[in-house]
């Protein structure tokens, strides 16, 4: 049976929205290119993610590091207290996140087609499950089919997290499509586990030069629903 397993952040919802809401509420920096600051903060977060998972770097230190570093690139210095105030506002804004319409339609279609659905997401278990609950994902995906790096003590792109989920959900790797926005974590991780890959690239990020390449790409011109419909029609 064909399966679609989803990332959460910047895949199921637009993570820029809570970021912008928190940024506008915390800082008065109209000259800063917000899109670039957002993308840079994501990159900095990814760089130290493993250290937060192992406990080498406290999560509060990561929160401070990523927004301070992103703003420093544009010649703005903020204090640790300002960085934490931004994080507080950011987390509050995440309580208002909603599924993208394209994602909602895709989940409905997959459910109608009886495709297996699941989630693999990096991050603290409680934090990520709060987002999953806010998005209402249990309307399509049971809790026992959602997996977090914090809960498993394994994180993308380690292929073992994909292999663990494949065993738990009895997936055929060749018929399983991982849907995510991070080339390194989602595309490379899934391909190294023998899965198919759908790369969500709404932000027009450059591809990494790597032997692992996505099987499908969703960008501003191509919807996820169209991609999934194409896959299931081919399988049918």
TrEMBL record:
<dbReference type="InterPro" id="IPR023214">
    <property type="entry name" value="HAD_sf"/>
</dbReference>
<dbReference type="Pfam" id="PF00702">
    <property type="entry name" value="Hydrolase"/>
</dbReference>
<dbReference type="GO" id="GO:0044281">
    <property type="term" value="P:small molecule metabolic process"/>
</dbReference>
<dbReference type="InterPro" id="IPR036412">
    <property type="entry name" value="HAD-like_sf"/>
</dbReference>
<keyword id="KW-0460">Magnesium</keyword>
<keyword id="KW-0479">Metal-binding</keyword>
<protein>
    <submittedName>
        <fullName>Uncharacterized protein</fullName>
    </submittedName>
</protein>
<keyword id="KW-0378">Hydrolase</keyword>
<dbReference type="InterPro" id="IPR006439">
    <property type="entry name" value="HAD-SF_hydro_IA"/>
</dbReference>
<dbReference type="GO" id="GO:0046872">
    <property type="term" value="F:metal ion binding"/>
</dbReference>
<dbReference type="GO" id="GO:0016791">
    <property type="term" value="F:phosphatase activity"/>
</dbReference>
<dbReference type="InterPro" id="IPR051400">
    <property type="entry name" value="HAD-like_hydrolase"/>
</dbReference>
């Amino acid at each position: 049976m064909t399966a679609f397993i989803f990332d959460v952040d910047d895949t199921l919802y637009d993570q820029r929205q809570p970021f912008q809401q928190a940024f506008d509420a915390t800082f008065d920096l109209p000259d800063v290119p917000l899109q670039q600051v957002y993308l840079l903060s994501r990159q900095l977060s990814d760089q130290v993610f493993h250290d937060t998972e192992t406990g080498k770097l406290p999560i509060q230190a990561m929160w401070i590091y990523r927004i301070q570093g992103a703003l420093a690139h544009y010649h703005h210095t903020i204090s640790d207290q300002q960085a934490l105030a931004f994080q507080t506002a950011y987390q509050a804004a995440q309580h208002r996140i909603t599924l993208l319409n394209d994602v909602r339609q895709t989940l409905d279609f997959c459910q109608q087609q009886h495709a297996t659905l699941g989630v693999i997401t990096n991050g603290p278990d409680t934090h990520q499950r709060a987002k999953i609950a806010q998005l209402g994902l249990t309307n399509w995906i049971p809790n026992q089919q959602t997996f977090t790096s914090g809960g498993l003590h394994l994180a993308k792109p380690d292929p073992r997290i994909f292999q663990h989920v494949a065993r738990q959900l009895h997936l055929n790797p060749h018929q399983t499509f991982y849907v995510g926005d991070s080339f390194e974590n989602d595309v490379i991780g899934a391909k190294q586990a023998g899965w198919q890959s759908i790369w969500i690239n709404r932000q027009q990020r450059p591809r990494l030069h790597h032997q692992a390449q996505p099987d499908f790409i969703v960008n501003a011109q191509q919807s996820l629903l169209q991609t999934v419909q194409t896959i299931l029609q081919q399988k049918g």
